[in-house]
Amino acid sequence: MDIRQLQYFVEAARLGSFSKAAKALYITQPTVSKMIRQIEEELGADLFYREGKSVKLTDAGEILLAKAQNIVESFHSLSSELDSLRKLKKGHVRIGLPPMVGANFFPAVIGQFHRKYPKVTIRLYEDGAKKVENDVENGILDIGMAVLPVDETKFHVFTFAEERLELLVPAGHRLEGRKSVSLAELKEEEFVLFQEDFALHDRVIDACVKAGFQPRVVYESSQWDLIAQMVAAGLGIGLLPQTICRDMDRSRISILAMTDPVIPWQLGMIWRKDRYLSFAAREWIGFAQGLLKDKGDPGKKKVDSST
């Protein structure tokens, strides 16, 4: 069993698919299948079983994953440390982006970084903010964009967006034409929310509970544009950040300010305090901070090249 086999296994376990793992690793699916079959033969145990179109870990697979993640992470750290020792401006950075964050804040940053450091590969993983935070904590990702607050005993944090949630209602809704609405006024409404692995899911539900009611969630999605479309179709109301609402088509949707309470939406770039950062990752953090500093909190942590 070698490090490459373990890398393929960890990626297949993370994505729940041999084909998706092959795509992420830029290899063929038969290669992934072959490598995992070799591990299974060596260990004398099945590591995956099929469930619909995805694969799930067996008990043996769960045990191997716990060990393999540490081994793969140690290997990446060794490679990164050697690159930094040579002062070579090449390498790769693993960055987690929630869908809303990636589309609205980072295309320009990534483009400028690539032009300056063409030999650095940026691998983007698009997941909900809660999963991104968890993957940074577990070393699967180097850097993540998360909805704040996070545990600052574990993470360095650079805040780059401080906004609030706004209310979306369909045309003809009883609240259409109002400038602002209190959360308590939405007690009898049906909600269209992000799925549970998105931080905004819990944020909205917690705010509603504090306002004295449990929201009736009728639909959940991982895509903000689908949420907006469902609201426009009259299937419920939605709560989305100002950045998303700013450029939204308002021909079928009205957007109202939320008051009493205001529900904040803060975004931060996070990375672990107790883990080695590669030269490429340190360059990325410093570069992104420089471009986003006008939106950030100057009191937050700046990257230290000795981290």
TrEMBL record:
One of its GO terms (cellular component) is cytosol. The keyword Iron does not apply. It holds the Pfam family HTH_1. Transmembrane segments: none annotated. GO terms for molecular function: DNA binding; DNA-binding transcription factor activity. Residues 1-58 form the HTH lysR-type domain. Keywords: DNA-binding, Transcription, Transcription regulation. NCBIfam families: trans_act_CidR. Belongs to the LysR transcriptional regulatory family. This is LysR family transcriptional regulator. It comes from Paenibacillus stellifer.
